Amino acid sequence: MSSTTGRLALVVSFLFLYAIQTSAQVNSPFSRYGLGNLVGSQHAISRAMGGISAAYADGNSYNVGQSVNFNNPATYGANYMVTYDLGLSLDSRKLTSQNPNGTFSSIYLIPSYLSVGIPVNKAKGLGIAFGLRPLTRVNYGVESRARAAGDSVGSIYQGTGGTYQAFVGLGKKWKNFSAGFNTGYTFGRQELSTTKTFYNDTLQYFESRTAIQNNFGKMFLQAGIQYEFTLSKKENAADKSSRNLLMRIGATASLQQNMNATQRQNKQTFVLSAAGGLIEVDSIAKQDNIKGTIVMPATYEAGFMFVKTLSNSRGNFQLWSAGMEFTTTQWTKYRSYGQSDMLNNSWALKFGGQISPNIEGSTNYLSNVNYRFGFQFGQDYINADGNGLKHSSFTLGAGFPIRKWRNYETQYTVVQAALQFGKRGSSVNNVTESYTQLTLGFSLSDVWFIKRRYD
User: Fold this and answer.
1) What are phi and psi of 55, to 5 degrees?
2) What is the pTM of this model?
3) What local confidence, expressed as pLDDT, does residue 287 receive?
4) How many angstroms separate the CA atoms of 207 and 201, rounded?
5) Which residues fall within 8 angstroms of residue 281, CB to CB, at 6 or more apart?
6) Are 37 and 163 within 8 A, CB to CB?
7) Does the pLDDT value for residue 12 go beyond 50?
8) What is the C-alpha to C-alpha distance for residues 86 and 111, in angstroms, rounded to an integer?
9) Which terminus in the chain has less CB density within 10 A, N or C?
10) How would you label 210-245 residue by residue, b for 16+ Cβ within 10 Å and e otherwise?
11) What was the pLDDT predicted at 405?
């Protein structure tokens, strides 16, 4: 099978995963609020480095390979090869409740991203990228019991859905400065329901169910910039090499979106059939195609990275990098059909880096692996109990080259891995959530349109 055919098969398989999703359930009650749980729509490299993306770029480091940093479109101008990027995440979560006392665990597999980066004109530093990625996920099922009207009443709250983003972007590089933008379409769906049942039914009440389905979408705009400058440079005339210490700063802004929405409502009474299904008794209220607006708030990111590089006759290589980033989203401006939710403005402070132990001719494979680490802490956007929700995580990861880079070859493939351990909530919250997320990414790069030469 040719490399082109193999990569096409990977892309088709990934789109198939998007289409069928997965039968595994995350069952997180936190996804009831806002647009659902944020799924961390970042590249595996960024996830492994604590979420740093605004100041990250890898287009000039051969040993790192090339990836599509879709979180900052300014990086597209550094594309030097056509790159296919795709990722999958395996997410394991554990909920702990103080009242009532109990725990619940779940695990699920979800596609993380699919993107393609293309150098339009390498001489002029012009590149494009496009792709698809999930932003949020709604999936929960919660049951509660209480006494009402002299009977035992059960309430079942359920929700499914999520938000996705199809994007296309353009990036341009002018020497040390880069700028770019992403645009495209944000779209999603929410299906929320509340079911009331009576366990003893001494008063002969009918069970009731209220279901709401929202479908929404709108064009979006994200802008990004990066600037890189040299802090120190040490040249070696003997082997014609130089070691450089660089500093790169970056920032992105995703503008607020007022997404067009249509809503379907259905309020009904029912009885349970012998098979356990619902038989409608009466439709109390049913409305279709209710027009409205769902507001997705703006997000801002800014950060910096220190990068140590080695340049010689073989190319430009990254020895190590480390940086910090701050991210905030104005979730108090979220509205769904004019209604706010139990949300806070979120923020996160992120730290991360990567190191290549020995890329100077070592034959040891592990010396050519790029090792990554990071951590972050901040405030989650959910405020269900009024006490806020602290969030922290620690990450590890690595970039495994399928084969060592050679400057006379046109293909380069890296398997990116990221492992994240996180927690949402603290002792002041009734419900806390701990999670472990494993992300596997595949960065497949090739050079197109090579002019053949004959002696």
Assistant:
1) -110, 10
2) 0.86
3) 85
4) 10
5) 206, 268, 269, 270, 271
6) no
7) no
8) 8
9) C
10) ebbbbbbbbebebbbbbbbeeeeeeeeeeeebeebe
11) 55
Inter-residue contact 121 to 99 (CB < 8 Å): no
Asked whether the beta carbons of 385 and 418 are under 8 A apart, the reply is no
The count of other CB atoms within 10 Å of the CB of residue 293 is 15
List of residues 6+ apart from 343 with CB closer than 8 A: 33, 34, 331, 332, 334, 381, 382, 383
The label of the residue with tokens 């509660």 reads 144
Of 311, 244, 316, 232, residue with least CA distance to 60: 316
Residue 392 in contact with residue 420, Cβ under 8 Å?
no
Q: How far apart are CA 357 and CA 345, in angstroms?
A: 40
Query: Count of CB atoms within 10 A of residue 33's CB?
Result: 19
Q: Among candidates 169, 335, 161, which has minimal Cα distance to 259?
A: 335
Amino acid (1-letter code) at residue 265: Q
Partner residues linked to 139 by β-bridges: 160
Contact 63, 318 (CB under 8 A): yes
Q: Measure the CA–CA gap between 34 and 38, rounded to whole angstroms.
A: 10
Residue corresponding to tokens 């309020």: 267
User: For residues 271 and 274, what is the distance between their CA atoms, to the nearest angstrom?
Assistant: 10
Distance, first Cα to last Cα, the chain: 29
Structure tokens at 295: 């507001």
The residue-averaged pLDDT of 11-40 equals 64
User: 431 pLDDT exceeds 80?
Assistant: yes
241 closest CA partner among 323, 124, 361:
361
Q: Tens digit of pLDDT for each residue in 184-206?
A: 999 999 998 887 776 665 555 66
For the record, the structure tokens of 176 come out as 């040390």
The arithmetic mean of pLDDT across residues 93-102, rounded, is 83
Name residues whose C-beta falls within 8 Å of residue 407's C-beta, 6 or more positions apart in sequence.
Answer: 62, 314, 315
